[in-house]
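Checklist before submission:
- one chain only
- standard amino acids only
- sequence pasted in full

Submission:
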Amino acid sequence: MTAATPDSATSPPAREPRRLARLTVDHAAIVENWRFFKKQAPNAAVSAVVKADAYGLGSIGASRALAQAGARVFFTATHGEAVLVRKALGEGPQIFVLNGPTAEDVGAFASAKLTPILNSMAQIKLWDARAPAGLHIDTGMNRLGIGPEELTDSVRALKDVSLAIVMSHLACASEVKHEMNALQLKRFVDAATLFPKAPRSLASTGGVLIGPDYHFDLVRPGVGLYGSGGLDADNPKLNAAATIEAPILQVRDVLPGETFGYGATFTAAQKMRTATVGLGYADGYLRSLSTRGYGFLAGAKRPILGRVSMDLIILDVTGCDDAQPGAMVEFLGPNAPLDDIAALAGTAPYEILTTFAGTVRKTGVR
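Returned file contents:
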């Protein structure tokens, strides 16, 4: 699989990178992951969630690659995100805005041909049948969406609105057998019957993998497009959409009893060879990966010794002749899988992408 390199239409002018870490985004991998979900949900339309700048990997390039592969429905979180995607894709695809309209941007939806998801009675009144919209029904997340006490009022208020979709969101899709999934499924079916003409959507990445009862008319893979199965365990093997590497700055031989990094939290039990790498939490590499994470070099995992600091990480490269200044070490990618790194950090793959990959990308490296 060939890593995609952005063209001049999707990237800012080249400039000297401010940080040493390098991000490579593989658009072909994103497309292959989207096709994986098409196979999982063959009877549903498969959209693409590109919010948060395509989870930190660049919404313009990702959206274009997905559209060329056949994606026709996209989701962003905000109006501003959607405008960028619309400019990249032209007029064809449908773009939903999950957070809905605000008083400041409601008048700008029509000109960009954007479709808001209406999440409250206040947003329904704000939209006022201007054009087609989507409706979010809260079935148990208690985050966004029309609550059960508002359903009757929403039916009346939307009688003149063409609903492009009725959707909800699973709270516990990462646990396939969680009882909340079946409960929300029932609640969604009951509520959606009040809007019989509207297409239905319940499943995002994890929900697709629960099974066909959750697929309905359209599924919404998000993090799955970028390399995570979205489950707490037994994730499918997806393609790595992001590879992050950083260079070795210095190599040294260390005697037994020497300590490493801030707080001297690791002590060498024997003679070791170490490499100091130009990467740290200023690049979004989480400090929680101290003594837990690893870099991948010359065919093997190289453990982190001591604490991750702002700009530097120390690795154990004992016995690795390839560990020389300038050698690039992989910290996220095919050999350092997204779900693996997230588990070691004690967080979700979403945070690894938007914090680590997103931060590296924002330094100007594409």
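Reviewer check: Residues 242-362 form a domain with the Lyase, Ornithine Decarboxylase; Chain A, domain 1 fold (CATH 2.40.37.10).
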